[in-house]
Amino acid sequence: MYKAIYFLIVLFCFSVQGAELLPLNPKFVHALGWVESKNNPNSVGDSGKSVGIYQIQWAAWYDAKEFNPKIGGEYKDCYNVEYALKVLTSYLNRYEPAACRNNDFKTLAKCWNGGPTWRKKNADVQKKLDIYWQKIKENLHK
């Protein structure tokens, strides 16, 4: 099932106020899902603060929906894999469009895990983001 969804990622572009959102690389999406939830769409983490396959927090969902109102839906829809992919894609296109365009998986991973201000985080957080990136990197070819 997931492979079919990841295949659709390649075809997945939609318009945001006249701008085209770039699809995310399927290998990156799969690796991120594996690290976040072992690709379990029913997963709940962070004491209930993160949900679904990509462990989407309410603030990330809100940012993605604000950037692309066409997403519609409600936060609870993040348990749906296709909907969660729209949220993930919109969020990363909003905050790291160049990384989306260039398949800069390291930047995308750090933004997803550290938020849009990840570059401004202190050294301890940067170390954690580096560890998170290594986990993503290790799963890119699985």
Describe the structure.
This protein is mainly alpha-helical and 142 residues long. It has one domain (2-11, 23-138): Lysozyme, CATH 1.10.530.10. 56% of the residues lie in helices and 7% in strands. It contains seven helices and five strands, in the order αββαβββααααα. It has helices spanning 2-11, 26-37, 58-67, 81-95, 97-102, 105-114, 123-138; strands spanning 15-16, 19-20, 44-45, 50-51, 56-57. The strands form two sheets. Strands 3-4-5 form a three-stranded antiparallel sheet. A two-stranded antiparallel sheet has the order 1-2. β4 (50-51) and β5 (56-57) form a beta hairpin. α1 (2-11) packs across α2.
Summarize this, please?
By secondary structure, the protein is mainly alpha-helical. It is built from seven helices and five strands. A hairpin with a 4-residue loop joins strand 4 and strand 5.
Count of runs of 4 or more consecutive helical residues: 7
CATH topology, which one?
A: Lysozyme
Structural class: mainly alpha
Sequence of secondary-structure elements: HEEHEEEHHHHH
- What is the alpha-carbon Rg in Å? 14 Å
Broad shape: globular
Residues in helix, %? 55-70%
Sheet with the most strands: spatial strand order: 3-4-5
CATH architecture: Orthogonal Bundle
Largest sheet: 3 strands, antiparallel
Strand content: 5-15%
Number of strand segments: 5
Low-confidence stretches: 4-16
Query: Mean pLDDT, nearest integer?
Result: 91
- How many distinct folded domains? 1
Describe the secondary-structure layout:
Blueprint: H1 2-11, E1 15-16, E2 19-20, H2 26-37, E3 44-45, E4 50-51, E5 56-57, H3 58-67, H4 81-95, H5 97-102, H6 105-114, H7 123-138
Antiparallel strand pairs: 1-2, 3-4, 4-5
Helix pairs in contact: 1-2, 2-7, 3-4, 6-7
